[in-house]
Amino acid sequence: MLFRSRTRDDAAARLAGEPLDTYSQDELTARIALLTTEIERVKAHHARATDHRRFADTLFKPRDTD
Predict the structure, then answer these.
(1) Res 3 pLDDT > 60
(2) Are 44 and 36 in contact (CB under 8 A)?
(3) Out of 19, 23, 32, 62, which could bridge 27 as a Cys pair, Cβ 3.0 to 4.6 Å?
């Protein structure tokens, strides 16, 4: 599945297109650490949203009428 950003001004889309050749080794290491932290934050939010959705699906699931 190909990710498409919400808009062309999406921060992730801008970040992905940014040239890296002006960064030093230390700056690249710091950038990797920052991006890794952000990925973990997004994964945690995704997990919470998945749990919330699962709970809502269970709560609003049609009841069996026997």
Answers:
(1) no
(2) no
(3) 23
Measured over the CA atoms of residue 11, residue 14, residue 9 and residue 50, the dihedral's sign is negative
d(CA 20, CA 18): 6
Cβ atoms of 32 and 40 within 8 Å: the answer is no
At 25-60, the pLDDT tens digits run 999 999 999 999 999 999 999 999 999 999 999 988
Structure tokens at 56: 């809502």
Helices (H), the chain: 11-16, 25-59
Give me 25's structure tokens.
């080794």
